[in-house]
Amino acid sequence: MLKFRRMRSLQKFAAIHSSVYNLFNLERHFFSRENFKKNRTAALSAWRHLCAA
After folding, report:
1. CA-wise closest residue to 25 among 11, 10, 39
2. What was the pLDDT predicted at 2?
3. What is the pTM of this model?
4. Are 10 and 1 in contact (CB under 8 A)?
5. Distance in angstroms (rounded) separating the CA atoms of residues 33 and 1
6. Which of 40, 47, 44 is nearest to 16 (CA)?
7. How far is the C-alpha of 51 from the C-alpha of 19, rounded, in Å?
């Protein structure tokens, strides 16, 4: 929090960061490598679609 001058900036950053983190946090230890790669590819394509819009 020391690098944020305003609480509002911190809240905006935290909201965006949590959305992105939840998109890419696939809890790798629960999946086999093949399933992890499939899920990661799906997450990346969803992220690219969101960024393109």
Report:
1. 39
2. 66
3. 0.49
4. yes
5. 36
6. 47
7. 13
d(CA 7, CA 26): 29
How far apart are alpha carbons 39 and 24 in whole angstroms?
A: 9
pLDDT in tens, 1-51: 567 788 888 888 888 888 888 777 767 677 788 888 888 899 889 888 988
Q: Are 26 and 40 in contact (CB under 8 A)?
A: yes
**CA 6, CA 48: separation in Å to the nearest integer?**
30
Residue keyed to tokens 């960024």: 51
Closest CA to 43 of 31, 25, 18: 25
| Residue 25 backbone zone (phi > 0: left; psi -120 to 50: alpha; other: beta) | beta
